[in-house]
Amino acid sequence: MGERTGLNKGLVFHEKCLSHETGNHPEKKERLVAIMDFLEKKGLLAGLKRVKARRASVDELAINHARNYVSTVKSFCEKGRGHLDPDTVVSEKSYEAAQWAVGGVLEAIDGASKGIYSSVFCVVRPPGHHALRNKAMGFCLFNNVAIGAKYAKEKGMERVLIVDWDAHHGNGTQEAFYLDSSVFYFSTHQWPLYPGTGSAQEEGEGPGKGYTLNCPMPPESGDEDFFKVYDRDFLPRARDFDPKLILISAGYDGHRMDPLSSLKLTTQGFAELTFRISDLSRQTHAPVVVVLEGGYNLSALAESVAATIEVLP
Ligand SMILES: [Zn+2]
């Protein structure tokens, strides 16, 4: 713990992420505005070091996505407003916004890998965990966290843990690492719910067997149910895995106030999940990079992000 003293907590936010216009859709730019306004109002911004975001390159997007998919998204967005999949609306600036979201996460990982930050919270959109190698899904264009994990491995962080507490299963992230023993993917998600993947029997394949851990949660599950799963099923395995980097796919749509799930997590519940990850981070000396996914009740979202940041290492 001593060696971490003096490290900074970082924050990624770039206005380009607001330019992904979605019209009358729950995944809207006001989400990020609400978060930033609340962090300011709570006096938290002053204590966070701003990580300078950047626009990810096509080569970086291609770490996890087919090049022809990347160019299809680019040209589709340039044509103006349309649907990439039934749930996923894009407009002219969406491709660029998605590049900034990915680039912000990559900068956070760079800073964490150099030991500049003990944790970084990335206030970015569009979200990413449903995006497959060659398909947009569920409001997601590019898989921010999957690209980040592969990028971190290229930078020499040989074992990456991904914790996904979004109410929905991160099918895109699971797909990216299903055969991979160097990335441990852990997800809690409401079951049944979109996208329908993430049963407990899906646990990786081949060399990746045992490195995917899905814990489907029945509707109405609340804080105590999540704590039990973390303490009993997840944390012992995460400590054994001994990650060099911890990524959190932080969706807040499991909050009791959120319209998109029937989970009953509270703001304090998210703080306590973060506390457990922070503890793991101190034990394993792995920095934590948190990447925003869902969360559609603006006040619950903003409060829960603040509660997360307060408990990060
Ligand atoms: Zn979600």
SSE topology:
Blueprint lengths: L7 E5 L17 H12 L7 E3 L6 H4 L5 H12 L3 E4 L2 E3 L3 H20 L3 E6 L21 H11 L5 E5 L6 H7 L5 E8 L21 E6 L5 H19 L3 E6 L16 H18 L3 E5 L5 H14 L2
Helix pairs in contact: 1-9, 4-5, 7-8, 8-9
Overview of this protein structure:
37% of the residues lie in helices and 16% in strands. The protein is built from nine helices and ten strands. The strands form two sheets. The protein has an eight-stranded parallel beta sheet with strand order 2-1-5-10-9-6-7-8, sandwiched between helices. The chain has a two-stranded antiparallel sheet with strand order 3-4. The mean pLDDT is 97. The longest helix is centred in the N-terminal third of the chain and has 20 residues, at 94-113. α7 packs parallel to α8 (267-284). It has 313 residues and is an alpha/beta fold. The chain has one domain: Histone deacetylase domain (Arginase, Chain A). β9, α8 (267-284) and β10 form a beta-alpha-beta unit. It binds zinc ion. Zinc ion (ZN) binds next to loops.
